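Consider the following assembly input.
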Amino acid sequence: MALGNRWNKVSESPTRANAAMLAEELTAEDLFTEAPAVVDTALDEKLRQAYFWLVNRAVISPFYDVEFSTGAPVTFELGDAGAELHLPTDQSYSSNVLLPLLTFAVGGKCLLVGGPGRGKTTLAILMGVLAGSSAREVRRNVQQGQPQVTVSDLVGMPLPRDLVTAGSLAEIEIAWRSWLSQPVKIIDEYNRIPTKTQSALLTMVAEGYVESHDQMHSTAPESGVESWFFTANDDAGGGTFPVIQALRDRMDVTVAAQGFNNRFFDELVARVEAGERPEDHLPPELVFDADEQRLLEAAIRAVPLPGAVRRQLEFFASHFEFVQQGGRRFEYRTKDTVRTGGGEVAEVIEANSGADLQVDLGSQTANSLSVRSLQTLIRYAKAMAYFRGRPVVGLDDLAAVLPFALRGKLLPNELHPRFDVGADRELATDSISWLADLFAESRRQFTALGLGANDPISDALDLFNRGLDGVTSAQAAQRLTGIESLISGIAKQGKLYGRHFDDLLALKYLHQRYTNYVSWLGFSG
Amino acid sequence: MTQRPRHLVNESLELTDEALPATTVDLALSATRIQERHGSAAGARYRHFIGRALAAQPFAGRDDLLTLAALAAWRSGALAFRTDALRRLDLALAGGSTPLSAVAAALGLGEGGVAPFAQLQRDSRFGWPGLHAPGELLAVIGGFRGLYGPWLAPPVAALAGERPGTFLIRTGTAASAEDWLLTADVFGHTLVRLAVDETEHGSVAAEAETRWSAAGDTAPGLAEAGVAGAVLTVRAYTAQLWTPEAAR
């Protein structure tokens, strides 16, 4: 086989067997109609084909760190420092390829971190080629972060003619840079960009437009779906310029580029000898045109998030806002109160001797989750389920993307005993493992508390959400008593954890609504 | 000896990679569709059978082409085409336009074997001339993942499914137990793991669970599907499909 042909191998068999696909009855006519009339079914298969081409042909990434198993995977304990190798029983994936690909599919923002020469930029370029641009065009449009880069360098400049002749700002035409409207935008080494230019970048990333001399320009491409890829060789505040927090927060997922596995040296040698780059050889059938990108994004958004999975996510997120001595009034006992008031969250947590730090997951973090982070998490969990050909989001889909979506956003409390001393010290720097463990522990607590089967606060919310039509004053009073009884039940437990904070505030909300309703009934007669 | 999944009807098959002729329907597309759904081996069988059939009837009209394609697809192992193929086979035998030679070629039979085959299929979806004696091995299914199969643990029990040609197979025990739904006929099978969905409190598919609790999940590994007319046994790392013993 000629060297050039080795790039063209795309999975021919279905990349995931689908029970529904195999079970239906077909007729001869079905053999001669283009495969599935339902476009999004074909697109998820195409997305998987793209993934397998990327990992098997393009970037040589024999890492399967996003693990899926039915039942317990075979596990080996290795060495004397607690290392474990799992052999997953279901199709598992390489995070440094999968997460960028999901970012491309959902139109998100991905930060690729890792030392030089680990293929971060190559991966980002491959995403651009998947979106239909030529490799050359994508390479030309990569914005190189360097200490001298200005806002004009990034967005373009006013035409000199207009600067002289224009009577007002409105008459100045801007020569916008062409990369701004590409479906895939790549900013290399964004932590080398000066702070002022980072702010301009933030407007583009956050708002989807750029502004110069009172003129605005939308960054949306033809499909309306744009994805951003940033690279950095440091994710701990290093780099020529510190990354402004608002820009860092816009990164939907953060993925580390893996090192090279030296057992795959032969492929490396072949590439050196052939002088080839993978982005020049993407099989054309893997390219997503503008319509497909739009349909793909819409299909992902449409994947349902079942109530049981949503409840687990609610429970997980509830751990992190509350801090016992963060304020005086109950509602203000939050990490945000401490932080915005200039206090040290870690010290406040340490001062709380009432809760068991081993059990209190909230005590492991120095901050809480933003609504934006949660929205990102939901979007990527849907993308994960879609990519796996699952009809609804499963807990395993959520667990798979959670560490990458929360990395850099949910920050460890470095004074917590877990990071300070003991067997888990490595988790202070391995945030992906820590976040995965945090979610696993939250799931264990959820199960131990029996919340899947018995959750009186959810029941009370459901009852209220059914509406108050026909509810009598006596019935409302009965419900008020029930709410007070639930609050009393929590109060009797003595120790207070993050999960109670949301529950108590929800109960207070219900109490208010019923109280107002009872007052209204009394007033109206 | 390592047992690999196979159907005995294909045992002595020598596949020819026939060049598909240009016709009024897109044969290359149909071959791709079979390959997409059932893998490259089934795709190769389809090209073989449809190629042979069209060599026997080079100028087939659209309806004949559809008949031959349905038969070739079914013969290649694509179960989903069985009902349509049988309907078309009955029409052809009842004096339809498709020549018997082409029908026979699409099924990999001699002309004289077509009518007996149709009769055997009326009795059992596992009927095939030369494979209908009692206790005849029809297919080997499953296998250890390390040896090209789908299973991580050996099958421990099997049950007849509720629909014809379906069986439930349990592999592994306790925490590692997995349930599989097998749908089979003489030419092919599909094997689908019944998903464990944590959103449903960790239960396997409800239908399977009910049936296992009735039978006990350490059933002796022998199931007879009366309607399907075949017996499934489990041994070592595979499941085997047999024609029923005469006395059974």
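The two ends of chain B are 29 Å apart (CA to CA). Ask yourself how this observation constrains the way the partners meet.
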